[in-house]
Specification:
The protein is mainly β. It is built from one helix and 26 strands.
Length: 299
């Protein structure tokens, strides 16, 4: 589409930028630098970025209904008090796998937190396989394991009617769907809805728009693709000026802007020279579609 515009809005220079979440009340964009071990909060009004440092890799951050945020740091879910920059551990997972860490996460419309894990990476996309799992955490901090034998637990979201759960295990190079029971949080009947094509790289983070379609970040693919989950058809491709695209979310005043995070880890000197914006955050406008507000963790 000729009206689509891509611009760099946050010079984050992240090692692994990830997990963008739009905070409507403050017009803030939350995101993390996993390997840089910091949580970032960009004010779209003042163009100012604040950060909270963590003592381990931080994979995600989401708003908490009771105030503040929760984040995935190492194998722990922690409460984040932004004003004091204090992190308080709430619950740990994968206690038998000390090399694991959290990766992508998202909150369902009921307020449950779904978060996945993975083994430590030797280098980008090279991990000890089948070490990860997918968990959910309820308001009383009850942890349920839904999947194991996962390589890199990644993007996730729900259909508008909350009857389908979309999920990505990156190394499978597919976008999958499950039946979802919103009352219990259980998932079943896994199937592939989109196999990645040549050049699209690895599926990473994703988000759903108000039409129920998926926007999938393509790591090593330099793009975000728009998929119809019903037909499995790719409807649109948005190209970006960096290859290691990690995740995306809708935001802005009316959720018509798509914010996209990226990474710089794994690029050689020549690639860095040709991708000076690697690790930055981009805003895509003119897509002609809007996204949905994020959900807050009920715990």
């Amino acid at each position: 589409m000729s009206s689509v515009k891509v611009e760099c809005v946050v010079k984050a220079s992240a090692v692994i930028g990830e997990g963008p979440v739009w905070e409507e009340s403050q017009q803030h964009l939350l995101f993390v630098d996993i390997a840089g071990q910091k949580i970032q909060r960009w004010d779209s009004v003042t163009n100012h970025t604040q950060s909270v440092e963590t003592d381990d890799m931080v994979a995600f951050v989401v708003p908490r209904k009771s105030g503040g945020y929760v984040a995935g740091v190492g194998r722990s879910i922690v409460a984040v008090d932004w004003s004091t920059q204090k992190l308080t551990s709430l619950v740990d997972v994968d206690k038998d796998k000390p090399n694991n860490r959290f990766n992508d996460a998202k909150v369902d419309p009921i307020g449950r937190l779904f978060a996945g894990t993975m083994g430590r990476e030797v280098r980008p996309t090279v991990v000890e396989k089948r070490q990860g799992s997918l968990f959910s955490v309820t308001s009383d901090l009850t942890v349920t394991k839904h999947l194991d034998q996962v390589d890199i637990s990644n993007g996730l979201d729900w259909s508008l009617d909350q009857k389908t759960f979309f999920y990505i295990d990156s190394l499978s190079r597919t976008v999958d769907a499950f039946d979802y029971d919103s009352d219990t949080g259980s998932i079943s009947n896994r199937r592939v809805i989109y196999p990645m094509e040549d050049g699209e790289g690895f599926p990473d983070g994703m988000t759903v728009d108000v039409e129920g379609r998926l926007w999938v970040a393509c790591y090593n693919g330099g793009r975000v693709i728009n998929i119809d989950p019903v037909t499995g058809v790719r409807l649109q491709t948005v190209s970006l000026p960096v290859t290691k695209i990690t995740s995306c979310c809708f935001g802005g005043v009316d959720y018509s802007d798509l914010y996209v995070t990226s990474a710089s880890l794994g690029l050689n000197e020549t690639e860095i020279k040709h991708q000076p914006l690697a690790g930055d955050v981009f805003r895509v406008t003119g897509l002609g579609v809007k996204g949905c507000p994020s959900n807050s963790f009920s715990g």
